[in-house]
Amino acid sequence: MQLPNKQELAALREKYPVGTKIILHHMKDPYPVPEGTVGEVVNIDDGGNIHVHWSNGSALAVIEGVDDFSEIHVANC
Questions:
Q1: Which is nearest to 63 in space by CA: 1, 18, 10?
Q2: Helices in 1-77 by DSSP H: which ranges?
Q3: Strands (DSSP E) along the chain, which ranges?
Q4: SS3 of 9, please?
Q5: Residue 1: what pLDDT?
Q6: Is-contact 45 51, C-beta < 8 A?
Q7: Run means of pLDDT, 10 residues per run, the chain, 77 residues
Q8: Are 22 and 38 in contact, with CB atoms under 8 Å apart?
Q9: Which DSSP string do the residues of 43-54 spell out, in sequence order?
């Protein structure tokens, strides 16, 4: 896997700013976060890893294009 360039990192950080809520559909990891777990983006490192604090206490990162997850859009009430 190739590391993202500066433009790709900027786009990723714009797409998933700190505080973005995501839900995991599938993680390609031998010890994955359970599918359906919700988390909050805390950082995107220079390698493009999206670091997440998951609701189950885990802190595993996800990688766009490798792991299957989506942003949760919360409607203003």
A1: 1
A2: 6-15
A3: 21-26, 38-44, 50-54, 68-71
A4: helix
A5: 63
A6: yes
A7: 89 97 96 96 97 96 96 74
A8: yes
A9: EE-TT--EEEEE
